[in-house]
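tool=predict chain=A
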Amino acid sequence: MYDFLNAIGGMGFAILGAALTVGLCCVGSAKGTGLVGEAAAGLVSEDPDKSTKCLILQVLPGTQGLYGFVALFIVLLQVGLMSGTPVDLTLTQGMSFFAACIPTAIGGWLSAKFQGRVAAASVGIVAKHPEAATKGLIFCGIVEFYAILEKAARDASRTSGEPRAAPTAPAGSSSSPASSSSLTIPSDRPGGSLTQLPVKICASAGAAGGEKTEPAPVRSSSPGGRTAGTAGAEGANADAVDCPP
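tool=predict ok
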């Protein structure tokens, strides 16, 4: 099962969710506007002067199709398909996009159908009481309100799958702590041994652009051919310089 889901990929699930959203919303809008058109055609055949009010009622169920197209373009923009630079989505991110599109897909489909029924019934108001046609628009607007709510729910839920860029450190500053290194210094006398001194490397506060500076150790010769570190320190605990606070 996982292999099948992984074969689809994150981008596949994101595009599938966007396609279902615009498809179901357009199907619901077509159904709703069709119902209103049937009722309006019967009224206009008897009284053509009322065609304008009937046309307003017929347009209302078509707004869910527009919501579906808006959701489609939002998803395509976020995954980078509109800009030509697709984002490498993980399977989890792709399924998050898919889940975020479900409220708009189902809500737009059903609300368009129910709004079409309400608008078709409101044609009867226009037929008998044209002065009360605004009341029919209010009835349709209540159904439209829930179509807007499901779109708001999709916008809120899609943020969980939105890919985010990793934070970067500001220019001129260094976010990495001081690192330690060892420096091999040859002896000044022939036949002397090589001594490794621990050197602490840190970002100098006064260096331009936060570049790392490596302090030079003080070289001094000793009778045994050994080389001492700064201020004559010996052993592994001798550091060349301390980092600035």
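The longest strand covers residues 195-203. The radius of gyration is 36 Å.
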